[in-house]
Amino acid sequence: MMRNRHLYIFIILISFSVNAQEKKDWYSFFGEIPNTVDKHYYQDLKTAKTLLEKVKIIDTISKIHIQAGNTDSIVHYGSLLQNKILAEANKFPEYDLYLSKSYNILGKGKLQKGLYDDAMKHHLDGIAISHVSEMSTMYYTHQLGLGTVYLYQKEYDTAVSIFETIAKNTQDNEILILAKKSSADVFFAEKDITKAKSNYLEVLNGLRIYENNKIRLETQLKLGRIDILEDDLSHALQYFRSVKEIALQNKFYDLYIDAVIQMGIVYYNQGHLQDAEIVLSSAYVNTVQWNKLELQRDVIMVLRNIKVAEKDYENAYNLMTQYLSISNQILKNQNKEIVKDMEIKYQTLQKEKEILSLKEEQLHKESEIKRQRTIKKAFLIGFLVILIPVIALLFLYFQKLKTQIALNKSQKEVNSQKVYGLMKDQELNLVKATMDGQNKERKRLARELHDSIGGNLASIKLQLSSNTSNNENIQTKILNQIDETYHQVRDLSHNLASKKFQNNGISTLIKEYVNNIEQGSNQKISFNPHPEEKINEIENPLKEELFKIIQELLTNTLKHAKADQIDIYLNQYQTILQLLFEDNGIGFNSEKIAEGIGFKNIKNRLHSLSGNMVIDSAIDRGTVINIEIPVS
């Protein structure tokens, strides 16, 4: 699927049906983003004479694109509105209001594109210029947007605190409903399904009085997803079908795409893999065309699961590669440094507000302080008389404390040296124990070679040098002794090699190891060899090294990643053996984290095998490790 966003081609509307559970569902995908804005707005924008007229029209066009979910258009008109205002700030009477609106439009657009850091920056800018006493609606709108960004970044405590504060203070009914729905979104993200479902139903009840169709559809989408978690797939499908049809009628294209994706997930859970693949492919066309990076990543992940279920591991591997590419694109587009500065600015602003509140309270107490000031002066003189010797005592005390700290520091250094010495002694003992074990094994091998094999060889030599006349008997004895010596050498070599790796294929060994781990933990681990017959032809020492690499990767993940899903793909293409190891854990900064012993051991093993390893990880995005080893 290719997207061509810059060529202006005619709109292609293609409809097709999926027959699922004896009911036909119709879906649409678009060659271009449907234009939901009436032409007269563009004409009015061209003919507008004043700046105020222009910004009002741009604001209206932006709201229409927000309703439709046209991400790129939202960002475009948000930037256009911002530039118009900033270019003529001195000539514009409602500068702060419309600048705040431009920040809100940009924040929504960046959030829909998955650029959370940029979205946070715009909402923080909006909060800074939207004073609650003058622009309360815009102030709480930006607060709501900021809380939503924290929700998407999985900082749930911060998000729910913001939403609860909004619900307590706002007088705007729409913002109140959105704050309640956003709180329910936090419970859903934290997998508190009971509380989330209860809150979503409260939101629907509240909408009976205050009607907002898009909020209703978003809430029904979440209730359908809860039904999936509760395995009520038929009821979930009813929600998604209803949302899909109403969203398309009202030109809420972002909700339409989301509903189609969820229907594909339902078909996948019902085992209708072909229907699910068709539905999700149509949704993927729209996510690519509309540049919705987060939704692209979600669709690819479900399509990957479908390919795994169909045992099409080659395409599953290709989809995983595409998933990593989109994830990297999202990360590159984010500007973390700017956002950190803005977060500090926001926190400073909040502190300044607290200080102002304290100052107001202090003013109320001034009259009382003045009344008591005369009385306190008398006590102050007496207090100073006592304070001087106290200061002298404190000075002596701090001098003593300083001396004690120096002694403690010196003692700590001595203790550190002792601990270091003990650690070195322990290392030496470990090395000595290892060498003793090796020496014992060498002595045992020497005895075997000398007593049995050496004795047989000496006997054979004597018989060959003998001048006896019974050559036939001598040959028979020599052959018997040679055969016995051969078996002794073979037994000795077999004792040195692990029987587990001699008698089993690598696929069997890994599956047995994975099953043992799953039985003793809460992790779900999948192992997918392709092609399995060819994988099992791998021989020592590659078989042992590969098994130990997978052991090390699993050990690191179980100890540090906090993952509940681990996927292992082992593929052989021509002369390359590929190992793809993926988890959905907390991840880490692959550029800054110091290499541990585990990764060093893996790299040492790969060096002896002429292999290489690529690590792709980021905070809260899991880890993917790709290893390639040449094979003959």
Tell me the layout of helices and strands:
Elements lengths: L12 E8 L2 E8 L8 H9 L3 H18 L2 H17 L7 H18 L3 H14 L6 H17 L3 H14 L3 H17 L3 H14 L6 H17 L3 H17 L3 H18 L2 H17 L3 H17 L3 H21 L2 H130 L5 H26 L2 H5 L2 H14 L4 E7 L1 H4 L6 H20 L3 E9 L2 E8 L13 H12 L3 E6 L5 E8 L2
Parallel strand pairs: 3-4
Antiparallel strand pairs: 1-2, 4-5, 5-7, 6-7
Give me some keywords for this one:
632 residues; alpha+beta; Heat Shock Protein 90; five-stranded mixed β-sheet; two-stranded antiparallel sheet; 7 strands; flat; disordered N terminus
**If you average the pLDDT, what whole number results?**
78
- Taken from the alpha-carbon principal axes, the silhouette is flat
| Low-confidence parts | 1-17
Please trace the helix and strand order, writing H or E for each element.
EEHHHHHHHHHHHHHHHHHHHEHHEEHEE
Distance between the termini: 36 Å
Indicate the structural class.
alpha+beta
Strand tally is 7
Helix content estimate: over 70%
Question: What is the architecture of the domain at 504-630 at the second tier of CATH?
Answer: 2-Layer Sandwich
Lateral arrangement of strands in the main beta sheet = 3-4-5-7-6
Percent strand equals: 5-15%
CATH class descriptor name of the domain at 504-630: Alpha Beta
Major sheet: 5 strands, mixed
Radius of gyration: 36 Å
DSSP summary: helix tally: 22
The fourth-level CATH homologous superfamily of the domain at 504-630 is Histidine kinase-like ATPase, C-terminal domain
Remind me, CATH topology of the domain at 504-630?
Heat Shock Protein 90
Looking at the chains present, what oligomeric state does this protein adopt? Answer: single chain
